[in-house]
Amino acid sequence: MPNIKSAIKRVKTSEKRRLINASRKSALRTAIKTVDTAIDDQNAESAKAALNDAIKKLDKAASKGLIHKNAASRKKSRLTKKVNAL
């Protein structure tokens, strides 16, 4: 455990950020899985709605530095291709 006041604060803030990042990343994965399940069910309407939600979450995650912008772009592209194939 750190003794210096600034180090103690860094431990607290980094733990808060870690929990927020974990929550956002989990929500992102869930959104992507929702799109995949809609595609598996051959449900074009729900797949498009889920795709819009997933794209928003991917963009938000990339802007916050949670994932790399190219990774977000790649995931959006692959999901969109799958939905358009329905």
TrEMBL record:
SUPFAM superfamilies the UniProt entry points to: Ribosomal protein S20 (SSF46992)
GO molecular function, one term: small ribosomal subunit rRNA binding
Keywords annotated in UniProt: Ribonucleoprotein, Ribosomal protein, RNA-binding, rRNA-binding
This protein's record includes keyword rRNA-binding: yes
GO biological process: translation
Keyword set includes RNA-binding: yes
Cross-referenced InterPro entries: Ribosomal_bS20, Ribosomal_bS20_sf
Gene3D superfamilies, alphabetized: Ribosomal protein S20
Cellular component annotations (GO), alphabetically ordered: cytosol; small ribosomal subunit
Pfam families with a match to the protein in the record: Ribosomal_S20p (PF01649)
Role this protein plays: Binds directly to 16S ribosomal RNA.
The family this protein is said to belong to: Belongs to the bacterial ribosomal protein bS20 family.
Protein name, per record: Small ribosomal subunit protein bS20
Organism the protein comes from: Chengkuizengella marina
Gene this protein is translated from: rpsT
